[in-house]
Amino acid sequence: MLRGVVGSERERKNSIVMNHASSQLAAVLAWLERNSFFENADGRWLHVLDSGDSEWLTSSEVGYHCAGKILDDDELDKATRFSLCLGLLDLLREYMVATRLRWATQAGGEPEWEALLWAEYRRRLESEQSADEVIKSLFDWFEEPEANLRAFRQTIESEVTELCRRSTLLTVSKNESLLRRFRRVLPVTGPLPWRVKHPVYRKLSIIPDLHDEIFMAVRASQHDLFGDMPAEGGLELVESLDAVREQTARAEMIEALERRQVSSD
């Protein structure tokens, strides 16, 4: 984590999150066993019903069913329910668990839940392991007009602002975990309003290692409902992305934006 930028305090917090994740995983494994869910060697799950009958479930089905059951369990306090669901997400890595967590966070009005959720999302986005379920869920957050600004702030904007304040933005290229997170977040920011995301795109455009992801984000902004992209701001940004691998596509976009700019004058 950002050595020499945020320093030992950031590392200390990350260590706490990692230890918490281990305890979450252990707790959810115990919960699954108590509720008669057992994983088979082939990745399927056996669920033994109260009647004594049993059924085979996919991990996605287990995630959807168990996340809902955990979050609705009145015998557990709210913090325990949320912690168990985060453990379930770690175990199954299923999109439906992340979706259930999103619904609970948005409906629950619990600030500590949301703070914990974003800490866990950042950890997963920085991990070398696949984070597809979190990335897909993040796109859903960005489509929510009442929640997308918080999601953007928690996953990328606040970090960029802090790095700029410290004049250390270029250190991102040397920080594998942070670079990985930014590379995963940027391509799904299409639904965000241009006025919100453009300043971040512009600041990050000085980092060639992120040009492909910024270009993907800009291209998505042309098609997403809330991702409106003005010709002038878009053209200047795309022209600055000279390290993009898809140079033909970049040239075509520049040409299209130039035509839009001329027609709007």
Describe, in plain words, how this protein is organized in 3D.
The protein is mainly α. It folds into two domains: 1-118, no CATH class; 127-265. Helices cover 66% and strands 4% of the residues. The chain is built from twelve helices and three strands, in the order H-E-E-E-H-H-H-H-H-H-H-H-H-H-H. It has a three-stranded antiparallel β-sheet. Strand 1 (37-39) and strand 2 (45-48) form a beta hairpin. Helix 1 crosses helix 3, helix 3 (78-92) runs antiparallel to helix 4 and helix 11 packs antiparallel against helix 12. The longest helix has 27 residues, at 8-34. Mean pLDDT is 87; it is low at 1-10.
Descriptive key words:
mainly alpha; 2 domains; disordered N terminus
What is the tally of helical segments? 12
Query: Largest sheet, described in full?
Result: 3 strands, antiparallel
Order of helices and strands: HEEEHHHHHHHHHHH
The count of strands amounts to 3
Helix content: 55-70%
Rounded mean pLDDT is 87
Radius of gyration, in angstroms, nearest whole number: 21 Å
- How many structural units, i.e. domains? 2
Low-confidence region ranges: 1-10
How far apart lie the N and C ends?
46 Å
Estimate the global geometry from the Cα principal axes.
elongated
The proportion of residues in beta strands is: under 5%
Strand order of the largest sheet: 1-2-3
Structural class: mainly alpha
